Amino acid sequence: MPLPKSIATVCLSGTLPDKLEAAALAGFQGIEIFENDLLTYDGSPEEVGRMCADLGLAVTIYQPFRDFEAMPEPQRRRNLDRAERKFDTMQALGTDLILVCSNTQPATLPEPERAAADLREMAERAAARGLRVGFEALAWGKQTSLWRQAWDIVHLADHPALGLILDSFHSLSRGDDLAGLDAVPSEKLFFLQLADAPKLSMDVLSWSRHFRLFPGQGELPVGSFLRDVLRAGYRGPISLEIFNDEFRAAPVRRIARDALRSLILLDDEVRGAAPPAGVPAAALPPAAELAGFEFLEFAVDDPSRGQLAGLLGTLGFARAGLHRSKSVELQRQGGVNLVLNSEPDSAASERFEMFGPAVCAMALRVDDPARALARAQSLLSPAWQERIGEGEQRIPAIRAPDGTLIYLVRTGSDIWSADFNLAAPQAAALPPLAGIDHVVQALAPGHLDGFVLFWRAVFGLQADPVWELPDPFGIVRSRTLSSASRSVRLPLNVSESRQTTTGRFVSAYAGAGVHHVAFAAPDVSAAAAPDAPMLDIPENYYDDLAARFGLGDAQLAALQRGHLLYDQDAQGGSFVHAYTHAFQDRFFFELVERRGGYDQYGAPNAAVRMAAQARQQRKWASGKGTSPNPINVCGSCARGRERRASRPCSRSRLTSATMQA
Ligand SMILES: O=C(O)c1ccc(O)c(O)c1
Ligand SMILES: [Mg+2]
User: Fold this and answer.
1) Confidence of residue 655 (pLDDT cuts 50, 70, 90)
2) Pairing relation of β-strands 290-299 and 358-366?
3) Cβ neighbours of residue 262 closer than 8 Å, sequence gap 6 or more
4) So what does this thing catalyse (predicted)?
5) Which ligand ends up closest to the CA of 209?
6) Is 302 annotated as a binding residue?
7) Residue nearest ligand 1's atom 5 by CA
8) Which candidate, 69, 73, 72, 94, places its Cα nearest to that of 83?
9) Ligand 1 atom closest to Cα of 99?
10) 45: Cα separation from own chain's centroid
């Protein structure tokens, strides 16, 4: 049996009914009613209680009750009167548990005995109505800020209707752990709130109120926290309490689904390898073993298909096959398969019509597609059944949060000969590419955490901490996901600015999508044809390289000649890479060579790349230079519709932003 799952209304956006409906729809069994959500709602607590019951949601807790314990008179008496009124509210809502968070008032007395006496009195009054009181240490509480202090008070008060509430954020943000929790009788563990967060150095109150994340999105050891709580005998609901500015501004159903996905994953992780005694083992199918990308698929129309094939040709790609029945071709270079799809009335054409040329699907090599699909479904990612023609094979698929199709291909299987007329292999013009090294996605603001969770949960990828990359027109935040074997690497970029290369891509594309694809080249300096449209890198960059790494003149000259960028890691590994110009101001390609176990992405070079792209973009926009890819972009709104000169932009004047080739 999975643990019962609950969520606090404060995690979600919208009105109280919106929040309740979204929580129920996602599949939660319980809801914490956050006081502010009730105070600002214009229905009675009875109505709210009925709404919850109709939606099948148990009201797990009413919270918070603030600044209660250890106050001098006359506040002490007033607080007890206030408690009685909240008991009325609880009874109307249909919950028996209230959360008292530790007092933050400067006037709180430093007397645990007084705190215990007050909480005992409150619990006595609660018990008279069949209600219970749980005490939680806020990390910034005036006298009580650690769970052990809260427990000492609860222990001292010694009332059956008074217990302890644990909140992972308050403990983990302080670097505290749960050593000693075994000594707390399990019936005294009244409730458990879970929250993750990125590691930030800031005051803990602001950190808590704005930057909490769902478990699995941040960097706190929430899994081992939960494991310890279960070991101590807690068997109540696990409840999310996330204060996050982005979540409160996002569509409520998306966030509610992310929330439940995070708890399903956490529940599974905790019960996976070594479930605490008496807790049943995990039930999710294990994550797939990934063996890289079988292909990426681009949505194109006929003209852009030819143009894209042209650009790919400069990197040594050649047409390796045509689909038997559809307007689809396979471009191949060594171990890289790219599918160009211009079939009308398909998922690809739908994407193309909305956004212009774009990656519409990726195929991952997995050890067991059926198991990978079952895991995805358990984690709230339903199967996607793409329309297929008669006699064509069906490849299991799901959709990423941005709608990109993710095909699940059995490692080592041949998916090509059945549906494609394959050309006889030709002598390659350039040394073969080893494969797809990484695929970078640009996300709209507010989408990073949801994407991280999706990839971590469904495919078991690991997430690195966030990097901040300076674009000339704003900051790009980047977080990389990768499989343990590093066969799949997915950096995710997000930018608040619409002017950064990430921001311009996202606004042109009206959402998220693949922004660049990096190919693994055994020798980057030989991986592009002389006519490949490679991004110019300024001389200053090479001067700095010489200074930073002490490279010899010949090596520097070779790097500069090839428009190559360079990085080294502390272990002596190095990275040589180069970028193409963007295709139709959308996505671009990178060639990368990893030497000596280098495991990063050349982040120190990102600023140089983004500045070069911005410079190139301006050149084209001002009519200087020739874009390798003909495109008309609307100067003011930069939307995808403007890809065709013949179709004027509905939102503003169409300007020919780049020269026609
Ligand atoms: O930020 C707060 O005030 C607050 C209130 C109630 C909680 O349970 C909590 O963890 C934090
Ligand atoms: Mg809490």
Assistant:
1) very low
2) antiparallel
3) 196, 214, 215, 216, 217, 240, 453, 457
4) 3-dehydroshikimate = 3,4-dihydroxybenzoate + H2O
5) 1
6) no
7) 64
8) 69
9) 8
10) 35
419: amino acid identity, one letter? D
Q: Which positions ≥6 away from 328 have C-beta within 8 Å?
A: 322, 339, 340, 341, 342, 343
- Look up residue 302 and give its two tokens: 């006929």
The amino acid at 132 = R
Rounded to the nearest angstrom, the gap between the alpha carbon of residue 92 and the centroid of all alpha carbons in its chain is 38
C-alpha 167 – ligand 2 centre gap (Å)? 5
Is 170 a known ligand-binding residue? no
Phi/psi at 648 (nearest 5 deg)? Answer: -70, 150
Average pLDDT over residues 579-606: 95
Pairing mode, strands 336-341 and 328-333: antiparallel
Q: How far is the CA of 124 from the centre of ligand 1 (A)?
A: 24
d(CA 318, CA 304): 16
* Residue 85 CB partners (closer than 8 Å, separation 6+): none
Report the nearest atom of ligand 1 relative to the CA of 34.
6
* Residue nearest atom 2 in ligand 1 by C-alpha distance: 209
* Strand, coil or helix: 190: strand
Instruction: Give the tokens for residue 590.
Output: 């990178």
Query: How far from 271 is each of 231, 276, 457, 487, CA to CA, in Å?
Result: 11, 7, 15, 27
Neighbours of 11 (CB within 10 A): 27
- Does 69 count as an annotated binding residue? no
Q: Is 167 annotated as a binding residue?
A: yes
Instruction: Establish whether 438 is an annotated binding residue.
Output: yes
Which of 62, 67, 101 best tests ligand 1's pocket when mutated (most atoms within 8 Å of CB)?
101
Q: Give yes or no for residue 631 having a pLDDT over 90.
A: no
CA neighbours closer than 13 Å in the CB half-sphere of residue 478: 26
Which residues line ligand 1 at a C-beta cut-off of 6 Å?
A: 63-64, 99, 101, 136, 138, 167, 193, 208-209, 241
Q: How many CA atoms are closer than 13 Å to the CA of 395, on its beta-carbon side?
A: 23
The answer to whether 296 and 400 have CB atoms below 8 angstroms apart is no
What tokens does 578 get? 């180069």
Mean pLDDT on 164-189: 98
Question: Tens digit of pLDDT for each residue in 434-448?
Answer: 999 999 999 999 999
Tens of pLDDT, residues 397-438: 999 998 899 999 999 999 999 999 999 887 778 999 999 999
CA atoms of 588 and 294, how far apart (whole Å)? 19
C-alpha 193 – ligand 2 centre gap (Å): 6
What is the 210 CA–ligand 1 centroid distance (Å)? Answer: 12
Please give the structure tokens belonging to residue 253.
Answer: 């159903």
For residue 633, pLDDT beyond 60: no
Ligand number, closest to the Cα atom of 139: 1
Q: Which of 7, 171, 241 to mutate to test the pocket of ligand 1 (most atoms within 8 A of CB)?
A: 241
The interface predicted TM-score (ipTM) is 0.99
Atom of ligand 1 at shortest range from CA of 169:
10
The residue count for the chain: 661
Return the beta strands (E) in 351-403 as ranges. 358-366, 397-399
Q: Residue 341 region, left (φ>0) first, then alpha (ψ -120 to 50), else beta?
A: beta
Which domains occur in the chain, in start order? 5-271 (3.20.20.150), 300-422 (3.10.180.10), 435-621 (3.10.180.10)
